[in-house]
Design a protein that fits this description.
Strand content: 5-15%
Structural class: alpha/beta
Number of helices: 17
Mean pLDDT: 85
Order of helices and strands: HHHHHEHEEHEHEHEHHEEHHEHEHHH
Helix content: 40-55%
Number of strands: 10
Strand order of the largest sheet: 3-2-1-4-5-6
Largest sheet: 6 strands, mixed
Low-confidence stretches: 1-5
Length: 475
């Protein structure tokens, strides 16, 4: 099978469909056991068929497998369908089965109390064993087949190496030496301007053709191998590679802040550091996204009266639209339109982009009050629902300023690993920036956030943000 014939979505679908079927089977078998356990004490059903055919059981049988899929999704199991180890398979399935068992017991089985504690314990134990075993072994078979396909070269990873020097050739040698586990299909090298380029039989491409090459050759992974380990050069290259949404990796012997907060997740092959994936677990990513959407919907519904009041205040305070839309740069450097309540006079940037200053005459009286309590940011909860933003993350900037920031602080490129946020550690500790140097200073807090990214850190930032809103200390 050629690499082009298999995709992440296809492989993910295999796991999802298998989990749906095994989940339904496990719960059906449990209901049979459940019937006989309940028969030992009491039962309102004359036969197994009448028990399984009851409306209550039919509804449970239809709903429970899909609830299980949601739990598996939250666990992060489906995020990376090709990068699984069998140990990871066991751990994720084990803990997901525990959580699923507890939920099913508390929601569905609590009414089946028999008065005999041993029977209740038996139901919980049998339910867990069925969910775990019937789910785990089909998953294990699929994952083993994936590993087998890679080892037998039925599938391989199309790789392009950025760099065409002796350094890049050494990286290529490592890939070939590691082919016992994971088959890499090296499609060629890309010249980096200013480096000593090697001429031999290997395909070598020009850097300006990189985007077209990735599409034509169906590249699955890019490896950075510059001749000299220069952080600034790596960050400049990364800023060009991010928009392609292809995993970009680099040897772990690279310098300080390039690899310090980035995860190493090559399961099958050479342990390269992934520059495009933040250091946060897959389950945390999904929980964060679930919270973002749920909380944003809640805010938009509950605070709708406040939205209406703020809209009227903006409308009658000065001429212009109530909602102000501006292009910002988000995850993987994708542009999006950020939404805010307008706080400045109409045509405030007629002469070009300008950062707001203390006592800025362009800010309206209502706008100054809204900025103080961060009310102008409220429409961005719609950006969160759309997927442009997260509630917590680095603040998004305009391309005009990003180009200037990257020239002074190329490490800014790293913030493009994640969705930008309505609030951030930089906004909490630093506030609004009124100059390029202040924007760069604020970026330091974003890097600290990336290095320590977790759900608990997000929660702390939300608490500090709430304090800022209550105290009116926003700038």
């Amino acid at each position: 099978m050629k690499p082009a014939e298999i995709s992440k979505s296809t492989q993910r679908a295999k796991y999802v469909v298998t989990d749906l079927l095994t989940g339904a089977l496990a719960f059906w078998v449990f209901n049979i056991v459940r019937y006989y356990l309940l028969q030992e004490v009491h039962s309102g059903y004359y036969s197994l068929s009448s028990f399984l055919g009851s409306t209550k059981l039919i509804v449970e049988q239809c709903v429970v497998p899909f609830v299980m899929l949601v739990i598996y999704w939250i666990s992060g199991y489906y995020n990376r369908p090709f990068q699984k180890s069998r140990l990871q398979e066991f751990n994720v399935t084990f803990f997901s089965s525990i959580i699923t068992t507890v939920i099913i017991y508390l929601v569905l089985l609590i009414n089946d109390q028999t008065g005999k504690r041993i029977i209740n314990y038996e139901m919980i134990g049998i339910l867990f064993l069925l969910l775990f075993l019937i789910t785990y072994f089909p998953r294990l078979i699929i994952t083993t087949l994936v590993i087998s396909h890679f080892r037998k070269d039925k599938w391989h990873i199309n790789v392009l190496i950025i760099g065409n020097s002796s350094v890049s050739r050494n990286v290529a040698k490592k890939l070939y030496e590691d082919n016992k586990v994971c088959k890499y299909n090296l499609r060629g090298f890309v010249e980096i301007p200013g480096e000593h380029s090697i001429k031999d039989s290997m395909p070598v491409f020009k850097f300006e053709d990189f985007e077209k090459i990735c599409g034509n050759l169906e590249i699955n992974q890019v490896i950075l191998a510059p001749e000299y380990h220069d952080d600034k050069k790596v960050m400049m290259l990364l800023s060009i590679l991010f928009p392609l949404d292809i995993p970009v990796k680099i040897s772990p012997d690279t310098l300080s802040y390039v690899t310090s907060a980035i995860r190493m997740n090559d399961i099958y092959g050479e342990p390269f550091v992934d520059l495009t994936t933040p250091a946060i677990s897959e389950s945390s990513k999904n929980i964060k996204r679930l919270f973002d959407v749920s909380f944003s919907i809640f805010v938009l519904l509950v605070l709708s009266p406040l939205f209406a009041i703020l809209a009227l205040c903006v409308r009658f305070s000065s001429k212009g639209p109530v909602i102000y839309s501006q292009e910002r740069i988000g995850r993987h450097q994708k542009p999006f339109s950020i939404l805010k309540f307008r706080t400045m006079i109409l045509n405030a940037e007629e002469t070009g982009p300008q950062l707001s200053q203390d006592n800025d005459p362009r800010i309206t009286r209502v706008g100054r009050w809204m900025r103080k309590y961060r009310f102008d940011e409220l429409p961005q909860f719609w950006n969160v629902i759309k997927g442009d933003m997260s509630i917590v993350g680095p603040r998004p900037e305009r391309e005009f300023y990003i180009r200037q920031i990257v020239q002074e602080a190329p490490y800014y490129t790293l913030v493009c690993q994640v969705r930008p946020g309505i609030t951030s550690w930089g906004m909490v500790k630093y506030g609004y920036a009124s100059s390029l140097s202040q924007m760069i200073d604020r970026t330091q807090y974003d890097l600290i956030y990336l290095a320590n990214m977790s759900l608990s850190v997000d929660f702390k930032i939300l608490i500090y943000t709430f304090k800022t809103i209550i105290s009116g200390s926003g700038k």
